Automatic annotation (TrEMBL):
Pfam families referenced in this protein's UniProt entry, alphabetically: XdhC_C, XdhC_CoxI
Annotated stretches, region: Disordered: 361-389
UniProt name for this protein: XdhC family protein
Compositional bias of kind Basic and acidic residues: 366-376
Xref: InterPro entries: MoCofactor_Util/Proc (IPR052698), XdhC_CoxI (IPR003777), XdhC_Rossmann_dom (IPR027051)
Stretches assigned to the XdhC Rossmann domain: 203-349
Ranges where the XdhC- CoxI domain occurs: 12-78, 118-180
Ranges of Polar residues composition bias in the record: 377-389
Gene3D superfamilies xrefs: NAD(P)-binding Rossmann-like Domain
Organism: Mycolicibacterium pallens
Length: 389
């Protein structure tokens, strides 16, 4: 929902009603993951996507009807449906989409969600998407690590869903939970979609050079909160790095160590070392390679790389620690310009996050989308650390 949150909140603040369609469950090669959303505004305009274009037309009609009737509905689109190919879902996947009207009456705590996400606080939204009593549909809880707003309809259901939703929030997962009609843990009949919104992961770019500006732009595009850091104040200026969220003038190793000490570094953090200057790189990588982060890459020629490894070994780093370093940084795309190099770096970050091999898809077989198990451990660790502060 985060990609359409600003549009949804703008409609909500006017007192009007929007149609919100959210992917709550997927099977096989579905084009979008749980949490992907589409908003239909009162004027008929659309924001977001639930299928990359496959079933948008049908979902649009459903959202329009839901706003008119005020009754939410859970719908399935996929190859098991007779009309699947007529609708356009030809990828072989199945989508469960919950469509509901959103207004100040139906979602009174939306402003809290907006504020929590803006302030990088973890928040989960637990919404009833199936129930024998249709009056329960669309009821929701808004949960933080130590707070809860709203009700599903009974104290028993609220307590069960609150406990389980906080577990998902700590793990950084969004999924459908099943209960009995009154929240019985071993029952069936009620389904609750828990959408977890974790703080944005960080990208730390060290070295205020032209390549850093391009990497910062790519990082912001991919959803990272980007910091550019360099000890040279004449180069590290906000004017040169307008897509970065912050620009810091400090010795890189000191800044990184301080951030780690403050608990601001986690297992999703991406570190890009672009200075290719030993007096900056070696002390910085001594700190970085001993941290639990998602990616560490360093720019430089192969000669620079060999010299860097020798210096790091002299500093006491082990082969296991050095094996975590992506150097020379990026995938082999034949990149030449800063912008092309930034794409190759972004591609390597994505490949390492999801377990991709970086090969052309025409040379591979099997599923295109990798399972997210590769990333689940790091997400769990990051949010557990965050919630324990």
């Amino acid at each position: 929902m985060q990609d359409v949150l600003s549009e949804l909140a703008a409609i909500w603040r006017t007192g009007q009603t929007a149609g919100l369609a959210t992917v709550v469950r997927t099977f096989r090669s579905a084009p979008r993951q749980p949490g992907a959303a589409m908003v239909v505004a009162p004027d008929g305009s659309v924001s977001g996507s639930v299928s990359g274009g496959c079933v948008e037309g049908a979902v649009y009609e459903s959202a329009t009807e839901v706003v008119a009737t005020g009754v939410p509905r859970l719908e399935r689109y996929g190859v098991s449906d007779d009309d699947a190919f007529a609708i356009g879902l030809t990828c072989g996947g199945i989508l469960d989409i919950f469509v509901e009207p959103i207004s100040q009456r139906s979602f009174p705590h939306l402003d809290r969600v907006v504020e929590d996400i803006a302030e990088h606080r973890p928040v989960a939204i637990a919404t009833v998407i199936a129930h024998p009593d249709h009056d329960w549909l669309g009821r929701r809880l808004v949960l933080g690590p130590e707070s809860v707003d709203g009700t599903l309809g009974s104290a028993r259901a609220d307590a069960a869903v609150t406990d389980d939703a906080r577990g998902l929030l700590a793990a950084g997962r969004s999924e459908v939970l099943t209960y009995g009609p009154d929240g019985q843990r071993r029952g069936e009949g009620m389904e609750v979609f828990v959408a977890c919104h974790a703080p944005r992961p960080r990208m730390l770019v060290f070295g205020a050079i032209d390549f850093a500006a391009a990497v910062a732009q790519q990082g912001a595009f991919l959803g990272y909160r980007v910091t550019v850091c360099d000890a040279r104040g004449v180069f590290a200026t906000p004017a040169r790095f307008q897509t970065a969220h912050e620009v810091v003038v400090e010795w890189p190793h000191r800044y990184l160590a301080a951030q780690a000490e403050a608990g601001a570094i986690d297992s999703r953090t991406v570190i890009c070392v672009l200075t290719h200057d030993a007096k900056f790189d070696v002390p910085l990588l001594e700190v970085a390679l001993r941290l639990d982060v998602g990616y560490i890459g360093a720019m430089g020629s192969r000669r620079t790389h060999d010299d860097r490894l020798a210096r790091l070994r002299e500093a006491g780093l082990t082969d296991a620690e050095l094996s975590r370093l992506a150097s020379p940084i990026g995938l082999d795309l034949g990149a030449r310009t800063p912008e092309e190099t930034a794409v190759s770096i972004a591609a390597e970050i994505i490949a390492r996050r999801w377990g991709g091999g970086g090969r052309p898809l025409t040379e591979t077989s099997g599923r295109i989308h990798h399972d997210d198990d590769h990333d689940s451990a790091s997400a769990t660790g990051q949010l557990s650390d965050y919630l324990s502060r």
